[in-house]
Amino acid sequence: MFEVLPPALIMVAGAILIGLLRGHWRSLLVLGTPLLALWAIWQIPDGVVATVNFLGYPIEPIEGSPLRRLFATIFALMAFGGGLYAFRQAKWYELSAAFIYAAGAIGVSFAGDLITFFLYWELMALFSTVVVWCGGTPGARAAGIRYAIMHLLGGVILKVGIEGVAIHTGSIDVQPMLASNFDTWMILIGILINAAAPPVSAWLSDAYPESSPTGSVFLSAFTTKTAVLALILLFPGEPVLIGVGLFMVMYGIIYALLENDVRRILAYSIVNQVGFMVCAVGIGTQMALNGAAAHAFAHILYKALLFMSAGAVIYRTGFSRCTDLGGLFRTMPLTAVCGIIGALAISGFPLTSGFTTKTMISQAAADESLVFVYFMLAAASAGVFLHAGIKFPWFVFFQKDSGLRPKDAPWNMAAAMVLLSGLCILLGVFPNLLYAYLPYPVEYVPYTASKVLFYLQLLLFSGLAFFLLLPLMKRTLTISLDTDWLWRVLLFRIARAIYLAFATLGTALQTRVGNGLVAIRARAETHFGAKLTRAGVFARAWSIGTTALWIAVLLTAYVLVYVL
Amino acid sequence: MNDDSSHWLTRPATIRKLWWGFSIVLAVIVAAQLFIYVKGYFGVDGWFGFGAAFGFLSCLAMVLVAKALGFVLKRNEDYYAAGDDDV
Fold first, then answer.
1. A190: closest CA among A168, A165, A159?
2. For residue A454, how many C-alpha atoms fall within 13 Å in the half-sphere facing its CB?
3. B 8-47 residues with CB below 8 A of A?
4. Tally of domains in chain A
5. What is the Cα–Cα distance from A243 to A241, expressed in whole angstroms?
């Protein structure tokens, strides 16, 4: 049926086989499947590869384009990196679920129509939930359920939009649209829920830190970046996205600054980074879309690297709070160095992948004379260094000596971290390796003396601000309320209040009705009861004469009425 | 070195030297603007030391905003768990 092997199906097949094989064969499968999928991804030519008719709609399961291949490539690379990181430590079902989750992301990348798109989208929702559950704690179970509810709800909204578009336009093609009517708004909202946009950003920082140390590496890569790809494909230049993106950027920084849990800090910074991309899609120029795609690619690498570094620490120490950690550079030097490389990359330090990709987005804002956007993004770049670039390595590997002396990461985790660190620096030093595969031609030059100096000033003085303001950032054993408070607490309280109100009402009614019944019964007793009282008319024994007389009277009355 | 609580990196003397080194780097990076032209897209961002001032002040603002919001938003870690108990 297909001229090419669908990469998503390769991943699904691999995921199923993981459960069937054991030992070295399973390891080989975990590492080989993503590479095979990667090979298949690069066999896909531009344009629609195959069309199948389904219920009168032309289904296009695979449509190639440079943008789609770019995202599929990074998803496959991440499945490999995550697999390498996890294959000796994670449970087989976590790996299996993560691979189907990756298959969903790769499937969405190549989906040529909205129906295929939706199916793979939901595949991601289901199996990412399983990955969250693989955290194995009661907290992970509860967070997984909240995560699933949010994503299934988002799926329903997306489905409403897709059906509306299918019916009203007759086309289910994945093509650029604007949020101009109800249908397209529903699609946009459905996608934005997966991008962790406000007001539901909280699902991300709620669920990811509850997963296992290996699970969060997979989780950090796919869902939000697939949403970015979907936005580039469906809503390029949608002005709403600029505001949404800027909000996410600032939200991520502020919440990460308040946070104590290491992985939750990184989770908030995903929202921050995706905000950059969402904002870029909103700007919508070729430069901006290139920037969004490049930044997504680079971001997946360094964010996974950061989660790997944090995961290795949690795997070795069992602690995930800044207040419990510190001073780990002594015994985990490799994890520390890799974590610092990831932190420098996310901050966009020159010579890292963050610099060569994030500055494209700022450049796009400058080219369009979006003054406010440009300065917000610059402030946010400083803020990223503050909340992720220094805060993460500082509190985990330096600050006070926690007394913990764990071993460094196991060899496979270390290998995965070294691999991703290498890629972060490679793309920072040779940005053209990535620029060559962007959807539009790139004329952008990241390394001008002017830009490098400006960003060095910006970043290094953010560093100064961090160390001067350190007393203000003392970690506390707290969490921060988010909009999910509305449904986790307020809605719960309202529901409980309603329940209690009905319960009280019920009891009251029962008493009332009960009293009423007793009264009626008493009256009935009076008239029908066997008690020989004057009122007990129906229960009294009547003499035959009286009865005959009454019958005669009734008959007479009946005849009279009948005749008249 | 494993159980040595006074690792060379944590000694006050080293930290003092690090602060000095860091300060010199900061000074150099601002002074470099005397020789290297920084292209401003909107005028102000080409001013001398703008990147440094903007970076520092926006971080200050963000930390203060976070601190202020913290008073409203911060709760005990078992906030939600405690909520579950009194069902």
1. A159
2. 24
3. 9-10, 22, 25-26, 29-30, 32-33, 36-39, 41-42, 45
4. 4
5. 5
Same domain, A501 and A546: no
Q: Which of A257, A401, A450 sits opposite B36 (nearest CB)?
A: A450
Stretch A3-12: mean pLDDT, rounded? 89
A84 and A37 Cβ atoms separated by less than 8 Å: no
Cβ contact B36–A449 (<8 Å) = yes
User: How far is A328 from A404, CA to CA, in rounded Å?
Assistant: 7
- Nearest Cα neighbor of A423 from A362, A373, A356 is A356
Q: For A133, list phi and psi in degrees, rounded to 5.
A: -60, -30
CB A152 within 8 A of CB A125: yes
A211 and A314 in a common domain: no
- B52–A458 C-beta distance less than 8 A: yes
Q: Which two tokens stand for residue A432?
A: 């053209």
Domain boundary among A191, A216, A235: A235
Rounded to the nearest angstrom, the minimum Cα separation between A397 and chain B is 12
- B9, B25, B80 ranked by CB distance to A488: nearest: B80
Tokens of A182: 């109800």
Q: Are residues A517 and A398 in the same domain?
A: no
pTM of the predicted protein model = 0.88
A466 and A563 co-located in one domain: no
- In this structure, the answer to whether residues A196 and A87 fall within a common structural domain is yes
**Residues A360 and A380 both lie in one domain:** yes
What are A451's two structure tokens?
């830009």
- Based on the domain organization, do A409 and A324 belong to the same domain? yes
The radius of gyration of chain A from alpha carbons, rounded to an integer in Å, stands at 32
The range of the structural domain enclosing residue A79 comes to: 1-235
The structure tokens listed for A481 are 């309320």
Q: What is the pLDDT of residue A438?
A: 95
B67 and A472 Cβ atoms separated by less than 8 Å: yes
Interface contact B51-A458, CB threshold 8 A? yes
Number of A–B residue contacts, CB under 8 Å: 151
Instruction: Summarize pLDDT for A465-503 with one digit per residue, the tens.
Output: 999 998 888 788 888 888 888 888 898 899 999 999 999
Q: Residues of B with CB below 8 A from A260's CB?
A: 77
Contacts of B82 in chain A (CB under 8 A): none
In this predicted structure, what is the pLDDT of residue A512?
87
Domain residues of chain B, as ranges? 8-85
CA pseudo-torsion sign A211, A212, A213, A219: negative
Which residues on chain A are in Cβ contact (under 8 Å) with B80? 479, 488-489
Q: Which of A457, A475, A493 is the last residue of a domain?
A: A475
- A-chain CB neighbours of B14 within 8 Å are none
Check B55 against A458: CB less than 8 A apart.
yes
How many angstroms away from the CA of B13 is the closest CA of chain A? Answer: 16
Judge if A262 and A373 occupy the same domain.
yes
| B-interface mutation test, from A332, A390, A400, A461, most B Cβ less than 10 A away | A461
Q: With 90 as the cut, is the pLDDT of residue A273 above it?
A: yes
- Residues of chain A in contact with residue B79, where contact means CB-CB under 8 angstroms, are 479, 481
| ipTM value | 0.87
